[in-house]
């Protein structure tokens, strides 16, 4: 048989790159790489599995959506002991809203791995959230509930789930941080610069300096978002100090 | 202080009875009995926890509902490799339908443990399903995901989730069993009798005999349901035999 000589090498190279990319996103090594590959196959690719069933991320998305709902519910249950069923339900739907999941998927740059016949520029925003859900489904199948819980805690709960902000009690962390600096007579500076890197979409990076010390960095698709994100990080880092004052 | 002398005894006795009841329902020993007790407190009881928050099963119901959704999704994902996202979603909503959950709660006689100020006879049907969901939430908190999965597999998936019947491919197990008996020229008999036991609602029990051998028993709130349930059990017990013929 005449295989092109670089077939296996190029295949391994591609798998190797994918493995490293996943490891970085997940924070752990994937065991069964095939499961994760499936999480990025768009239906337009028209892939089939060995049994002839369509192979794309949609089934994993179904699974991931349900796991995400359960894990977010568990966190809310523990985090808000005084919230009744209605409150918990409302908070959960804010956290797992389409918009929020799309943002998560974008931040992890999941679209870079998507396999499709449609040009990526023609996808709507929902591809980001859908692939994020599929990734959660893949984590569950590959490593079980605990890894899934850990991933969601680190990637969804810690950076995004702030009950006070979700409740609308805190509108802007930037203004909280500025107020605090002014009250404390400390200088502050938001150093914003373009940092698109390998992204297709323009990105901005922010360094937030308070009293000549860098207290937080952040990166997002708009200046405003990046500033707000850095402020939020600074807010939590400085929280104890701010509460004292 | 003048405690009534039997206070602690009667309290322990009540807890002991509850513990045994739970152990029977769950199939394992509850660790933290308080969590399970909470799963049966109706809001009308007006109970508060130490922090003054309302204490009833509604928060556990929120948690259990989400866990149930995730675990059922996982089972469907594994059980139906050829089903697409739309199919899986449809099947899941049939399994976790209000009606289905009410039936589950009734079969486990969960209402016997409900604490409320409203007479139980005045509750609608949904109390059964709501308490069932709260129980799932309590299992999660007490023992974690794996026990939750095991409980749902044994109590929901095994006896109730039959993809073919959910899809409407099998309308009646009773007719399948009768057909088979007639084809095989075997005698059969559905022996139905009233067996209300300690229930408030009338119940019927069925013994299904094929060729003078009891092959299945079942119990339900109507004759028809009990016969169908016994037939389903017989069908699965006899499945290999039936497929051969």
TrEMBL record, chains A, B:
Compartments, record wording: Cytoplasm
Transmembrane segments: none
Keywords assigned: Cytoplasm, Endonuclease, Hydrolase, Magnesium, Metal-binding, mRNA processing, Nuclease, RNA-binding, rRNA processing, rRNA-binding, tRNA processing
Catalytic activity, as annotated: Endonucleolytic cleavage to 5'-phosphomonoester
Quaternary structure, from the entry: Homodimer.
Functional summary from the UniProt entry: Digests double-stranded RNA. Involved in the processing of primary rRNA transcript to yield the immediate precursors to the large and small rRNAs (23S and 16S). Processes some mRNAs, and tRNAs when they are encoded in the rRNA operon. Processes pre-crRNA and tracrRNA of type II CRISPR loci if present in the organism.
Protein name: Ribonuclease 3
